[in-house]
Amino acid sequence: MEKRTENAAQIGLFGAAGAAGQSIARALSAAGRSYRVIGRGEAALKASFGHDGLADIVTWNPDAPASIAAAAEGLQTAVYLVGVPYHRFDQHPVLMQKTLAGLRAAGVRRLILIGTVYPYGRARSQPVTESHPREPHTFKGKMRLAQENLVIDAHGRDGLETLVLRLPDFYGPGVERSFLHGVFDGAAKGTRAQMVGPIDVPHEFVFMPDVGPVVERLSRTPEAFGRVLHLAGAGTITQRAIAERAYALARREPKLMVAGKTTLRIAGLFNPMMRELVEMHYLLTDPVVLDDSALTGLIGPVTKTSYEAGIAQSLAAAQRAAARHPGAQAA
After folding, report:
1. CA distance 35 to 54
2. What does each C-alpha distance from 107 to 11, 69, 100, 205, 232 come to in angstroms?
3. Are 229 and 298 in contact (CB under 8 A)?
4. Tens-digit pLDDT profile for residues 204-233
5. In the chain, at which end, N or C, are there fewer CB atoms within 10 A of the end residue's CB?
6. How many domains would you assign to the chain?
7. What is the β-pairing status of strands 236-237 and 203-207?
8. Looking at the whole model, is its pTM more than 0.90?
9. 142 inside domain
10. Which residues form a coiled coil (predicted)?
């Protein structure tokens, strides 16, 4: 484990190298707060955070409670962002159990889990509030529910306070693990956008750069702990509308290749990722749209980037990436 000890970080981001971790880190840095980034790979952490003097870089083994405790040493608050391969969601509750043991051993006082809508299952009503029943009908939803329950049940035990913040699907500049990544990549390169449909159903996406400031505020809001809260996007929009806007900004005609559920099943015979998307396809036909009035009632108004601005920023990032690899562009 490597650690830059010149910073007295009180908040640590476990699984920091992803898009959410980078968004939260930027918000903490903007607020002048020292923070610790914790991940499996030192190179990825250094590439993302090595430029920031407020960042304390630590590597860990999330399978080992002793390593977790060492990574958490001296922290007051932990933000949990750890991802697992899409076909290994069974690891979510296992890793959370180990993380909780490690955090307790290190004397961490607060834990924020960045969650998803998966535990709800199919929405009974729209928009969905935090009181909506959690009745997942998918394996991934059940694993996320088990993870959440561990965090919720840990509140008030051994001096630990916990918070679950649920997010909808997300997008943003350079965010590759998004349903919309293929849209911006295709518009930037002049190639076909690889999409999963249906693409004409109103859907909710949160702009990833908007997440960090919310988590930063929640981390210093004692009243938020012991709760589950939602962060919603800037309303709903269809994937087609996003694609049309992105291609228009790129001054290109839209080129869309849309895979439906049947196509996913067939592709899944050869591609494990496509196979895993099949059970979550219901979120595209019957999206879960979140109500975040409880969050705004607690911390006040939340800045939400409009889809128009978010699409423009995401496309610009994709165009910069395409310019770095000009051989990938189509005529």
Report:
1. 6
2. 13, 9, 10, 36, 32
3. yes
4. 999 999 999 999 999 999 999 999 999 999
5. C
6. 2
7. antiparallel
8. yes
9. yes
10. none
